[in-house]
Amino acid sequence: MTSLVCTNRSPIGRYNSSCRFQEIYSMLLRTFRSTIPAVKRMYSQIAAYDKYTTLKVTAPSEYVCHVELNRPDSLNSMNKQFFTDLRQCFEQISSDSSIRCVMLSGAGRFFTSGLDLKDAALLTSDQPDVGRKGLALLRGSITPFQESISSLEKCSKPVVCAIHSGCVGGGVDLVTAGDIRLATSDAYFQIKEIDIGLAADIGTLQRFQKVIGNDSIFRELAYTCRKLFADEAFKIGLISSIFVNKEEMMKFALETCTIIASKSPIAIQTSKKSINYSRDHSVKEGLEHVAAWNMTMLQSEDLIKAVMAAVNKEKPVFSKL
Amino acid sequence: MTSLVCTNRSPIGRYNSSCRFQEIYSMLLRTFRSTIPAVKRMYSQIAAYDKYTTLKVTAPSEYVCHVELNRPDSLNSMNKQFFTDLRQCFEQISSDSSIRCVMLSGAGRFFTSGLDLKDAALLTSDQPDVGRKGLALLRGSITPFQESISSLEKCSKPVVCAIHSGCVGGGVDLVTAGDIRLATSDAYFQIKEIDIGLAADIGTLQRFQKVIGNDSIFRELAYTCRKLFADEAFKIGLISSIFVNKEEMMKFALETCTIIASKSPIAIQTSKKSINYSRDHSVKEGLEHVAAWNMTMLQSEDLIKAVMAAVNKEKPVFSKL
Amino acid sequence: MTSLVCTNRSPIGRYNSSCRFQEIYSMLLRTFRSTIPAVKRMYSQIAAYDKYTTLKVTAPSEYVCHVELNRPDSLNSMNKQFFTDLRQCFEQISSDSSIRCVMLSGAGRFFTSGLDLKDAALLTSDQPDVGRKGLALLRGSITPFQESISSLEKCSKPVVCAIHSGCVGGGVDLVTAGDIRLATSDAYFQIKEIDIGLAADIGTLQRFQKVIGNDSIFRELAYTCRKLFADEAFKIGLISSIFVNKEEMMKFALETCTIIASKSPIAIQTSKKSINYSRDHSVKEGLEHVAAWNMTMLQSEDLIKAVMAAVNKEKPVFSKL
Amino acid sequence: MTSLVCTNRSPIGRYNSSCRFQEIYSMLLRTFRSTIPAVKRMYSQIAAYDKYTTLKVTAPSEYVCHVELNRPDSLNSMNKQFFTDLRQCFEQISSDSSIRCVMLSGAGRFFTSGLDLKDAALLTSDQPDVGRKGLALLRGSITPFQESISSLEKCSKPVVCAIHSGCVGGGVDLVTAGDIRLATSDAYFQIKEIDIGLAADIGTLQRFQKVIGNDSIFRELAYTCRKLFADEAFKIGLISSIFVNKEEMMKFALETCTIIASKSPIAIQTSKKSINYSRDHSVKEGLEHVAAWNMTMLQSEDLIKAVMAAVNKEKPVFSKL
Amino acid sequence: MTSLVCTNRSPIGRYNSSCRFQEIYSMLLRTFRSTIPAVKRMYSQIAAYDKYTTLKVTAPSEYVCHVELNRPDSLNSMNKQFFTDLRQCFEQISSDSSIRCVMLSGAGRFFTSGLDLKDAALLTSDQPDVGRKGLALLRGSITPFQESISSLEKCSKPVVCAIHSGCVGGGVDLVTAGDIRLATSDAYFQIKEIDIGLAADIGTLQRFQKVIGNDSIFRELAYTCRKLFADEAFKIGLISSIFVNKEEMMKFALETCTIIASKSPIAIQTSKKSINYSRDHSVKEGLEHVAAWNMTMLQSEDLIKAVMAAVNKEKPVFSKL
Amino acid sequence: MTSLVCTNRSPIGRYNSSCRFQEIYSMLLRTFRSTIPAVKRMYSQIAAYDKYTTLKVTAPSEYVCHVELNRPDSLNSMNKQFFTDLRQCFEQISSDSSIRCVMLSGAGRFFTSGLDLKDAALLTSDQPDVGRKGLALLRGSITPFQESISSLEKCSKPVVCAIHSGCVGGGVDLVTAGDIRLATSDAYFQIKEIDIGLAADIGTLQRFQKVIGNDSIFRELAYTCRKLFADEAFKIGLISSIFVNKEEMMKFALETCTIIASKSPIAIQTSKKSINYSRDHSVKEGLEHVAAWNMTMLQSEDLIKAVMAAVNKEKPVFSKL
Q: One biological-process term from Gene Ontology (chains A, B, C, D, E, F) (predicted)?
């Protein structure tokens, strides 16, 4: 299968045009045989993020942070502590001017097996009354879990999700709240909630159809709980690229994050804000929204720095944000 | 072409991973060479649904009903009676606790040729005044036809559309209101309204762009009235799967429906509700909506039954709904 | 590669069904070896559109007009005059009953290199006060540029964009406001704004995600500023067709426009109105909107003319609009 | 208090300008001492509306119908039959071209005491499961009751509510769905739901704040369940006029209905449609909506008839609608 | 009635607190017996606004302009020229930095009699086809007239409407698009459109219910076409103040405009923008909108100037805007 | 003026019907000459709320808490600490099951003088770049202040604001986020922001027009910064009642709170949720929202308890919430 392997699209500019017509093959499998040494996970954890027991946060390159789901022994299943950590971590990142882009992945064998069903606190309540129990579920679980997942979307910096192996149940809620999704060729996704007797209520049913363009397959996935493998996930637009193994994926993810982190933070953060807003509004309202923001942002020094750097063919250095 | 044929995605778990990299071929053609005997159309019509003259309603398996467009001599063209039957039938299904999933197909040579232009009552009015004629069209045709088509969407149970041969004009309005769309390799779709001098006003222009992810091709289809064949329909996301013939498609459709019907009806119906709502609202509003519903639904017995069944590796039995 | 070449989808009806299963190859490359002589650009400019210095407007066939970005020496970069011309031109076309469809392309080597950064008036203001400078930018640049780009969307007639070579920065804002997008195999798109330190504010961030179905790739493009080549643009749904060269593309574009221009203008314009409205509203509101319009439009003579022509197998002749 | 009594505002043109400065007194009390004989309730019931057991429908003048809540022995309390009757009755009126305006009042001692708590079917369900019970309440009570109340709003003809004595609980839901509200000086309103342990869910909490302009008093009424007497109801804008007794109110209501029924039905029904739509949308969307409708309606013969009648000082005669 | 007369609310600070409890009388009639000489209409027309034949534009005080409806011989009826003038005039004012507040009144005996029915071009079309006629009405009359009226709302500066005598039909559309409404005690308003057989389609049905708080009276006015006299208009919130005669009203209007014109134009224009936006959006969206604007505006020099002037008890001088 | 004094509206049922026609006087002035001893402010602070330095929180009666703005020496001006305290306090109350209703007032001479302009941290930022300064203002001041004010609206329990003397600037933002507003006869309101050179951005411009029904006076207040005295505030619907002095007001406020606190907390909290939601959505969406909630809430024990208590004429005792 050697002839199928080519890098049809590379963020570091090695685009080989003769290769383009073979995209049909290469879209199935992104293999890097580059000589860049493998990305080593040697970074020490960032001190300020030490406190999260279910996440590991490191700094693989300047302005990039790497958040790892870090309960490998439980297949990174999502317990109450995880939801609390996740939200606090992304709120901290959102206002941490030493970070401009986030890479999210899972430690161990699995990306995540979804909700930790052993964590009894998740979906129960000791209220005897139906009304009070309903409110307890709403206030104690549903809303805080929704806000935890939404913290990726609300984070002012882009989030690149690198997914390997299984991404099940709550994991789908999680990655659809990110900006960019990558996966290994052995990855699969599973909207699993209906199999445990409930409708997915923390993001999947709300975001999935808005990030892809195939409502028929989305509903089939949601109703049947069948697995969605990486190649079909690529075809329907859930993920941007497929990689032969996790190592290659992490290398590419880091490259992508590093490129994003090198851009004007004013431009990146305003863009993310506008993209999220525009998804949920009419074109006209999206235009008014970005116009209001750009009254300020077009007066930023980043504009001049970026243009000057381009003219002088230098790397621009932007102030903290 | 034998080597192209493989079942890349099967709802009953026979996924052949070595096959996955050939998805690019198999996506064009789903062929089952399984030994499961062909689905025989031997089911007798359900008595309670006898009254519909333009539809045939049978019960191919537990909790599944099969609605067939049943005017084969007129290529299942849609006359006034059809619109009335369709709406009543799906409203009846929606509250019929013996049905949990619906399979929709067309009897005879064609799925449907669209609006029955011989039914003079459809688009005319004997009002001499432009204003009154406008209101007569609105109240006598446009709105009731819209509500008829929308009854698929409003039906609390999922609707799987199995399309063969031609699906023209009003047929496109119809199937885009369903949940899942399957087609045979000889099927084609045609947004035909502009060719008879009018803008499609009962669903196509409103739903088509929301179920696929290719506005450019959608507009080309709408403006030129050209045919969209099954392979391109698959590529742009209008349909989930292609089958070599109608028999294979019906077999797969029934399997899919049977799987859906085996799940918690609380979970399925809440999911459909949330998916429809979320399509038309912002992510935030979609989250609030499903949260309000799950205050009730997380207290349902289905949750416990589903989890218990999973633990005990049994088939759960859910109460009627 | 001869065997890969076939016209899987042709607006003039030569569909070769045996070819369909090869769509997977031909989707990559649309090659016409037809004997139709090449489309010559011999049309003289339409007098009423002489006044636009940055655009060239010709009439290649009945009811079709061709708008060319016409600053080839500056790579059709977009200066202040261009934005003014563009809006006035499309407003003029919108109410010009001799035009029913528009073809948009770029003269010279490039489709467009985007914003003309040499036009100092674009993003600066001599106001010393931050507040007043913000308003000056809003009122002097952002809003008028947005309205200029949106004039394609608001134009009552469909706009077919034929893109060759580079379509950079503001060019992406421009073509996503059109109805149908075609490209040559050497074309590429680039959301370039972040590289000059600003968030795209005249359409790309608002419309791009609504015309395709792959949010992950969209955000990757927006944040990294990488090039999107024609084949990937085809895959994610940004463009409908790829052509081996500009000549073939223009021929196809003209054919498409000619077909659209032959249809009922009442039906076409109502459809465009409804498609734009439905994109920004819920299905229910989209249905109410088209219903209100069709109270009038179903009473138009075009309906009878179209049906009669179909019955008599004649070409219908519609009144001006 | 004789000097306080004057008709500051009369629909039949007897406006006494010297009286205007006494409006402050007369606004409290509309007293007619006119010689017009009292409105006798001698009209026989309209045959087509005989079937409603909880409502009495008569025809007091041309094109006007009078709907009476007609369970005086139960204080017109609202039972399941009432909700069914109400919806069917107003849907029938909506498409009955012999009716152009509706007068709604209550027979007997009370306007209505609200929900009939003795009708056990209203708020209970025999489902043992919380989820199924929730859906049974939604589908069996809440939604059908909401649709029953909303049938006044959806009715294409204006509804004038004439309220005497108590209008409690569901009665407030009912009258806020009407167009115009009149009351006798002894009338009172009471948002009563919280006193029986539930949030009002069939209209009051949704419409009340949109028909008046005093959110502080609205919330006080909703939370405390205190009575709102006619004078304060007048002050905060819930009702348009106060009358010394029911006879005077009915006379005025009938005059108002008769005037409305004498106008162009095209103009009246389009206005009601637009007012309802505009309440729930932005000004811009309201303008687009009425514009789409008036494309048709400005071509109606009613326009010419109305203008001609005005010129010739004749009473216009409009076709049925 | 002398004792009733007091200035309960005066923009120039002469508030007499002992008078407050008599507000109930004085709200009916604002009488100034101040010694300030009557406002003389001696200002010459502003040259740049000479071109409008149906409007007279003068400059009564610094930063204030006075727009007069100026077809007194036709009772300021609104013809096609008027709608064109009005829009152009308010767009000119919107970007004229020498104007900060606008006073709008009518010359002659009447404020305006509404649509000029003698201007045949207004509501007719020579198109023979219903569809084309509909579009001609939409594009030639309805939309341009709507945009003309909406130009008051879109004007970046506040508009104070001073209304005397009759304000009929289109006049109500006009003044409800202004910011502040004042009237003389002999003024009356009349939603007149239904009497000429059409639904008001240029603003009244869309804005009226949003500027007052009494839906019942609004609908009564719309359906019956009865006159609304100044006192009732005051009671329901259509107008802010009533004056004994036009002279007093103009004096007060000019004082109000002068006060507004003395404030920070950044603060005034941002406030008007936010008020208009918030009317049409949820509270949450309104808050996000003003927050985006204030990122810029809080950095304006006006903030410092205003605070410094307050500290130093000086009149602040703001830069042009 | 003794004869004018009567309690036209009393929450404890002493309604004197003969008094009703004097409402016009009494609406100006609510005087209680009841024998109930004056409300003594003897309650000790609730321990759990000790931490707030700018607020004093006491428990005047069962399930009622009293929050006092408690910086009397600074006229309760709003500094950064205040905004932090306010939000935390209302979030704490929202989930404190020992509180069911909140009374908010100001300690000392003034209700509040608004933003504390001496707190330099409020509106400045040390960022040198316009873009970064804008974001710093957004994230450091505007958004947190908005969220602080909105915490009253989001609090699950009703908030009754009792306002005396001046309520200026930020104070208007504050009280319009409450549920019910009462004021003393010497109270006044002042939208003051424009006088310090900025548009009100933490609630007034967004909520004021939605709680009253007089857009003309609202805009006059916003643009001119004039004072709005209690009587006019009452007339336009900003406040529900006026009192002769603060003691009487506090007594009435406490009575109102006590009544609210005696009701079913399920019913009260669901009602507040629905009222807030409905204000910002269409009637149809408001109905769907409350329906989803009542699927749960109608199954609450509160319903039975409330009905039983009514039948048995007992005071119901509801479980904690």
A: fatty acid metabolic process
